[in-house]
Amino acid sequence: MDEFELIKKYFSPLEKLDNSIIVRNGDDAAVISVPEQKSIVLSVDTLVEGIHFLPDTDPEVIGFRSAAVNLSDMAAMGAQPGYGLLSLVIPNNDEAWLRNFSLGLGECLDKYDCSLIGGDTARGPLAISLTMVGHVSGSPLTRDGAKIGDTILVSGTLGDASGALSILNKAPLDAEEKFLVGRYERPSARISLSMNLLGIANAAIDISDGLLADAGHIAAASDVGIDLLANSIPISSSLSSVYTEKEALEFALSGGDDYELMYTVPQDALAEAYAMAAKEGIKLTKIGMVTEGSHVRCLSGENQDIILKAKGYKHF
Ligand code: ADP
Ligand code: MG
């Protein structure tokens, strides 16, 4: 099977046609129309074998996650994603791998109504780079908008994906472990929640490097301090049942890979934010406040600093 047959068989079907696509996959470039009164949002993320996933990872999981991690960045901006471009570097044309990879990728793109409009295929050490294109109405959510006095909210539960890492290859898994592994393998992108929080939240960030590290990015970009309350960090019952309280909190504060979002919301918009989350059926939890300063700290129940330093995943 040559490169063109491979693309036609596994990737062209992931293009969902609608009338915004003017030139579809197969030409030298794809062409889409620009929605009136909207801004274009672009992001790219790369997954490299050995760095972002282990060599024996199920290709369906790699496919799903390569879209989900990118869609989470779109969500963090309040964007509606629409299109993807896939740059695929593969060591060989292993059909079973390609079939499963494209299944996982298609599953995630489909879930968020996105269309794969193009890409590039090359031979080399396995690496997957996906570019997403979307749009936003009005001002996007950014990292630099947090204001002193804002409440810090977080979607979903934290630490589940980190809790999954050490049991990914365990078999059999009990129900709680299965939940954690599911959170790692098929993370949700909080697209519709974030779109509903446009004009309500002052700032947002994708917590992919760990809560403390990413809270640090909001603090730096917005020139504010961040006080988090350890007792209020949302931890799933599965994470609590598989790990000790201390381990679960460590995962929730420093582990990445959950792809939940952190928002800062002014007091007068809080009720509206909770109402939007309830409408979406997504848990939104108050975990702290934006304060004066430039710190990120996490306070224990007795208001003592328990963790001051943000550590998260850094590539270099
Ligand atoms: P070129 O020779 O100009 O680089 P390609 O042969 O890479 O063109 O691509 C031919 C067509 O196939 C293009 O429309 C491109 O967008 C699409 N394509 C290539 N690789 C992929 C892929 N991995 N996924 C989706 N579409 C792809
Ligand atoms: Mg090419």
Describe the model.
The structure is a single chain. The strands form 3 sheets. A 7-stranded mixed beta sheet has the order 8-10-7-11-9-12-13, sandwiched between helices. A 4-stranded mixed beta sheet has the order 3-6-4-5. A two-stranded antiparallel sheet has the order 1-2. Helix 2 packs parallel to helix 3. The mean pLDDT is 94. Helices cover 34% and strands 26% of the residues. It folds into 2 domains: 135 residues, 2-Layer Sandwich (60s Ribosomal Protein L30, Chain: A), CATH 3.30.1330.10; 149 residues, PurM-like C-terminal domain (Phosphoribosyl-aminoimidazole Synthetase, Chain A, domain 2, Alpha-Beta Complex), CATH 3.90.650. The radius of gyration is 20 Å and the shape is globular. Strand 1 and strand 2 form a beta hairpin. With 316 residues, the protein is α+β, with helices and mostly antiparallel strands. Bound molecules: adenosine-5'-diphosphate and magnesium ion (MG). The site of adenosine-5'-diphosphate has 13 residues, from helix 1, strand 4 and strand 5.
